[in-house]
Design a protein that fits this description.
Oligomer: single chain
Structural class: alpha+beta
Distance between the termini: 39 Å
């Protein structure tokens, strides 16, 4: 009996993996993701990439905790769903003499076998994925990558513990449920469906209208920028989504009942009946999946905005190999220059002054046309000779300036307004006309850069007698400034702060790139990790539900074929059913997520989110990433369903 018992478990496990291939593949990918990110979390190599990377285990640990809960919900849902679908089969085992505990053990073992196989495959795939993530991280820090195919035993062990907890919890619930059921309850367990929550038409309309208003208000509150209002907005969105799908599921039959002509037009009746049956049992589930998709889009959009923000700020600050802005004009510069002369080989450098214009006429113009804000009280001015040296140090081509002209060097966001300025300026009593506008990166941020967003470049004679705003030093070094030297310079900067109370600014290209890599690893990686896990889980549950109806669809279309329905009409009906099923939970997230991402991408300072980092581009990339993963599940489900359901595809 024991041999037959385990053979039956093995046979059922194989069939289960075949019938729920999408679920099995998702669990394999889940194991791979967990293993790969556990490898990063426990990697000593990753933590030594940068001083900032000591936060990496915490960030990935928090993300992994959420991902484990998400995948746990997937396994728990799929296990319960399979129990309901196989309840007649399991009830039949009771009829032929097996005891409840034996049937429970059978179900437990076959699902455990599926989970074990998925874990084994996922661990192998996880090592490959870990190597890919490791290569990306090393590339961010500019470190050569060497491929070594070797499983991290601590990462494998941690992933196995996660899976053990997930499966033991999910299967333990199913096992207890089976052991408590009698034959009748188990056989008819599949018939226990969710019914319409709101039956009255008036109540349905009120809930639908209120849910739409709540979701819209929640979206606005999410964009407020306030933590408390944002949390309130998130609550409104969640309540709105559940109200929408509950009232929508209850309202579809009523909508078609009041419009019989539309119900019986073309293949609408077939689509209507299928949609009604689905929504009647999936209103709450659809709302949950829609909420997950909303969180996915927001996570992807936030990750792309942060990445764009980090890149934009880095490219502005990293234009010089070494830059020091000194906030007091009268400060002794030797504290920094002596260290540089002794420790940092310099190829080309310039020590210069940023001046104050006698007035703020250009700044006032920008405030009128561009809602501009500045730390400066007058227009910042730079001498032509210093500007030419800075362009040479930064590697930009030389430009020309007439004796009676001035240039505007500004961030790209101010270029259009700068070119539209026609008034002359008169610093030092010299009248100058606009001779050109340039927008290369020139460290135009903070109090001690080349102005805040813009600076006016004038002939040297026009700067004579002007007051000095701050001193600055820029250098092109023979090699990138090592972290040790950058750190020692910051120690000197801290000493200046303690002695005078004034803050200086020190930037190196190497430190800014290191900061970019660290910020990306600490924020963008976990957000995309979470977004991928959420999308996979929600799409897998939708697909499990859809593919489980294959047999019913097959009988339905076989009957319609006998009744004379055209095959093209059957294909059209299947396509419409399929489109509505997958579109319903995705539409609200798009309507909520797109305004949220657009607003979030406009928050950073002007000139940072431009080009491929513009709000429109980031929103498009977020949608593309979401629908890429979601589309793969849709394609797999549609291909399988069309092949197995339509008579002509047999």
């Amino acid at each position: 009996m024991s041999v037959t018992y385990f053979e039956l478990s093995a046979r059922n496990a194989k069939r289960q993996a075949r019938d729920y291939l999408v679920y099995f593949a998702t669990v394999v990918l889940a194991a791979a993701l967990l293993c790969a990110f556990n490898g990063l979390l426990l990697s000593g190599e990753v933590q030594t990439l940068s001083k900032s990377m000591n936060m990496m285990p915490l960030m990935l640990g928090m993300a992994s905790a959420v991902v484990v809960c998400v995948f746990g919900w997937l396994v728990s849902y799929a296990t319960g769903f399979m129990l309901s679908r196989r309840s007649r089969e399991l009830g039949t085992y009771l009829l032929i003499g097996l005891e409840n505990k034996q049937v429970a053990r059978l179900f437990f073992l076959e699902n455990l076998a599926v989970g074990g196989c998925a874990l084994a495959l996922g661990l192998v795939l996880g090592d490959v994925l870990y190597q890919a993530l490791r290569a990306i991280l090393l590339a961010l820090f500019g470190i050569p990558y060497q491929f070594t195919l070797a499983l991290s035993l601590p990462a494998v062990a941690l992933t196995a513990v996660y899976f053990a907890l997930i499966y033991l919890f999910a299967l333990g619930r199913s096992r207890r449920r089976i052991r408590k059921m009698n034959i009748h309850g188990l056989i008819y367990f599949e018939k226990q469906n969710q019914g319409a929550v709101i039956r009255s038409g008036k109540g349905r309309r009120w809930v639908f209208a209120a849910s739409v208003v709540l979701a819209a208000a929640g979206t606005v509150l999410l964009m407020s920028g306030s933590g408390k209002l944002g949390l309130t907005g998130a609550g409104c969105v969640i309540v709105g989504l559940y109200g929408f799908f509950i009232s929508f599921a209850s309202g579809v039959p009523a909508f078609f009942d009041r419009r019989p002509a539309r119900k019986y037009r073309g293949v609408n009746l077939l689509v209507f009946r299928t949609l009604t049956a689905k929504l009647a049992t999936m209103g709450v589930l659809m709302a949950t999946i829609s909420m997950i998709f909303t969180a996915t889009l927001m996570a992807e959009g936030t990750g792309l905005v942060l990445r764009g923000l980090f890149i934009g700020r880095m490219t502005e600050k990293a234009c010089f190999d070494l830059y020091i802005g000194m906030g007091e004009p009268e400060r002794d510069r030797s504290i920094y220059l002596d260290y540089i002369e002794a420790h940092i080989p310099v190829e080309e450098d310039v020590f210069y002054q940023v001046y104050n214009s006698p007035d703020d006429q250009f700044m006032a113009y920008l405030k009128e046309t561009n809602n501009y804000y500045s730390f400066y009280e007058q227009d910042p001015i730079l001498r032509w000779s210093d500007y030419a040296a800075l362009r040479s140090i930064a590697g930009y081509p030389p430009v020309e300036l007439g004796e009676d002209q001035y240039l505007v060097h500004c961030i790209s966001a101010l270029e259009k307004d700068a070119r539209g300025y026609t008034r002359p300026i008169s610093p030092g009593g010299v009248t100058l006309e606009l001779g050109g506008v340039h927008t290369e990166h020139l460290l135009q941020s903070g109090v001690t850069g080349q102005g805040h967003g813009y600076i006016l470049v004038v002939p040297d004679r026009a700067a004579e007698g002007l007051s000095v705003h701050h001193l600055a030093y820029a250098a092109k070094t023979v090699e990138p400034v090592p972290y040790e030297d950058f750190y020692n310079l910051t120690v000197l900067m801290d000493q200046v702060w303690e002695n005078t109370g004034r803050a200086d600014q020190i930037n190196t290209e190497a430190s800014e790139k290191d900061e970019l890599a660290s910020q990306t690893a600490l924020t963008v990686f976990p957000l995309f990790y979470l977004a991928l896990a959420l999308t996979m889980t929600a799409a897998a549950i939708l697909t499990i539900q859809q593919l489980s109806e294959s047999e019913r669809y097959r009988r339905q279309f076989a009957l319609l074929q006998k009744l004379g329905m055209d095959r093209r009409d059957m294909a059209r009906a299947l396509g419409r059913q399929f489109f509505l099923y997958y579109a319903l939970p995705a539409v609200p997230p798009v309507l909520i997520g797109v305004p949220f991402i657009l607003n979030l991408a406009k928050v950073p300072e002007p000139g940072v989110m431009v080009g491929l980092r513009s709000p429109a581009a980031i929103t498009a990339f977020s949608l593309a990433l979401f629908f890429l993963v979601y589309g793969l599940y849709i394609l797999m489900a549609y291909t399988s369903l069309r092949r197995n359901v339509l008579p002509q595809d047999r």
